[in-house]
Each structure stands twice: as structure tokens, then as C-alpha cells.
Specification:
The protein is an alpha+beta fold and 148 residues long. Strand 4 (82-85) and strand 5 (93-96) form a beta hairpin. It folds into two domains: 4-62, no CATH class; 82-136, no CATH class. 22% of the residues lie in helices and 17% in strands. A three-stranded antiparallel β-sheet has the order 1-2-3, with helices on one face. It has a two-stranded antiparallel sheet with strand order 4-5. It has helices at 45-54, 102-119, 132-136, and strands at 4-10, 15-20, 25-28, 82-85, 93-96. The radius of gyration is 19 Å and the shape is elongated.
């Protein structure tokens, strides 16, 4: 199991940094993307993220980047999962929109979707609030303390 030495979240830039037990740093921040552009390693990530963490960690200017990767962090418009049936397509059920939390939510997601398919509804009533109907109706869940 991975253990971390520290975690810092900068809410103003939606950035985070964690240090692993091996001394590595894992960092992330939001980056603007053009629609339909291919995923590529963006070198502009490094100065952008360094600027954020130099404010908190002045010694960070001495850190040398050995490798990095970029990836998408795909979420729904309100950053909450989308669960359940899609009314327009009979028999279609989804569990999507929670990139980064998918592994954590995997067990309950499987339970909820299986119940929806077999029983017609989930045993956890809150799951129904996460249906695609809210997205289609523009009734997004408002939460101020969402990171990522």
C-alpha cells in the first residue's frame, strides 16, 4: 500500500502535490485543452505547476524533473458520477464521470448498478440523485469543496 509523506492542496489553482514514501512527487493541476486535440505530453505543465509550489516550497526550485506524464481527468459537468439508466436507450446503464475516484468507488458502483439492473432501483436512494437526468435537465449538484 502506498504511503505518503505529505499532501498539499492549493484550492485557488486546483493543484495538488503529494510525496510518496520513496521521495517521488506526484503533482496535478488543471490545464486548458482545445476540444478534440490528441493527448500529448505538454511541456508547459512543468513551469505552470512549479510556479504553484514555489510559493509554498521555496526549495522546490532545486528539484530536477526526471520524468513526467500528462493525462486526462475526465469528469461530469458537476464533477459527480453519473449512475443508472439512460432513458433514451432501453437497457443502457452507465457508471461514469468520476475519473480519479473510480477505483475508490468501484465496489459501491458495482452494487448500485447491479441493483438497478436486477431490482429496478438501487438500495441506496442517494444514487438516484446521480442519474443522467440531472445533467440533461441542467440541475447540477453544487459542492464547493471539490478537488480535481
Amino acid at each position: 500500500m502506498e504511503t505518503f509523506k505529505f499532501l498539499i492542496i492549493d484550492w485557488s489553482t486546483s493543484s495538488y502535490i503529494v510525496q510518496t514514501k520513496d521521495g517521488d512527487f506526484l503533482m496535478g493541476t488543471e490545464m486548458e485543452e482545445e476540444p478534440d486535440t490528441p493527448l500529448i505530453n505538454r511541456i508547459d505543465f512543468i513551469p505552470r505547476i512549479a510556479k504553484v509550489w514555489l510559493r509554498y516550497l521555496p526549495w522546490f526550485s532545486e528539484v530536477r524533473v526526471l520524468r513526467y506524464w500528462t493525462g486526462y481527468y475526465v469528469m461530469s459537468p458537476d464533477r459527480h458520477p453519473i449512475y443508472g439508466p439512460i432513458d433514451e436507450v432501453e437497457g443502457l446503464y452507465v457508471a461514469a464521470g468520476f475519473s480519479g475516484h473510480g477505483f475508490i468507488m468501484g465496489p459501491i458502483t458495482g452494487k448500485v448498478i447491479a441493483e438497478w439492473i436486477v431490482d429496478g432501483e438501487p438500495s441506496i436512494s442517494q444514487a438516484e440523485k446521480l442519474s443522467f437526468r440531472r445533467i440533461r435537465g441542467g440541475k447540477f449538484i453544487q459542492e464547493l469543496a471539490v478537488f480535481g
